[in-house]
Amino acid sequence: MQTIAGKFVPVMITPFDLKANIDFDAVNTLLDFYLQAGVKGIFANCLSSEMFSISEAERLQLTQHIVSYVNGRVPIVATGSFGLTIEDKADFTKRIYDTGVDAVILITGHYAKVEDSNDVLLQNFEKMFSLTGDIPLGMYECPAPYKRIIEADVFRKLLQADRLIYHKDTSITHENVKAKLDILEELPNKLEFYDAHTPNAMYSMQHGAVGMSSISGNFYPELLVWMVENANNPDKQADVQWLQQELTAVDPMIHIAYPMSAKYFLQKEACR
């Protein structure tokens, strides 16, 4: 069992004011909340951020603001695969990278249609790699526009391109997660593997994941920070197992009306 402490990276929600504009003061308060909890990174402009509901300009403005406010205290990643064509996606990736993020995340469902084969996905990723120079990239098995799970053999081929440094996994099953983690052990690479499924936290960390990046971090990030830092601590296994049972038990509840539920929860938390 590894003893290296892991990293928790929250998927950042976006506060809005009563005119549906981004509330940047509230963004700052939320960033302080994450940082005080001990997170080791921020995932900006993601599904939890309502990235599909804001404009291209707002995605860039929000990400730039987050980068400026965090000011190097932790790494920041942000989604960049927006646009109709691969060329469009590459262009937006360059622009969001210019905000100062540490890596740009590509949504796997943006690189092949539901009915397309893995060969199509691999060809489109290869083209994306060729159009984005040396920009550090990552993958996100985002549930929207549809969830494109990267199978183990495809994962291996993508890693061999040596362009990916980040992977946010949503494949859920232990079998799928372990298949990818086993590949990471075999291949020399710099990719960091983050599981998005809170019920997997203990399992994934104990099988080689770098950390977690789950929506539960918008409710109790300090608990996820503790989990990833102690999942491989032999002296804390009883507490780790207990906490995992509790996190798993409440996980279905936090998905109800999310991210509105998280915003309501955080408002109550701020008023305590």
Give an overview of the whole structure.
This protein is of the alpha/beta class and 272 residues long. It contains 10 helices and 8 strands. The chain has helices at residues 24-37, 56-70, 86-97, 118-131, 152-159, 174-186, 201-206, 221-230, 237-254, 260-270, and strands at residues 7-8, 42-44, 76-79, 103-107, 137-140, 164-169, 192-195, 211-212. It has an 8-stranded parallel sheet with strand order 1-8-7-6-5-4-3-2. Helix 1 (24-37) crosses helix 2 and helix 3 (86-97) packs across helix 4 (118-131). The longest helix is centred in the last third of the chain and has 18 residues, at 237-254. The chain is globular, with a radius of gyration of 18 Å. The mean pLDDT is 95.
Concise account of the structure shown:
The protein has 272 residues and is of the alpha/beta class. The chain is 44% helix and 11% strand. The longest helix is centred in the last third of the chain and has 18 residues, at 237-254.
* Secondary-structure element order, N to C: EHEHEHEHEHEHEHEHHH
Low-confidence stretches: none
Provide the spatial order of strands within the biggest beta sheet: 1-8-7-6-5-4-3-2
Structural class: alpha/beta
Strand runs, count: 8
- Using the CA coordinates, give the radius of gyration: 18 Å
The total of helices stands at: 10
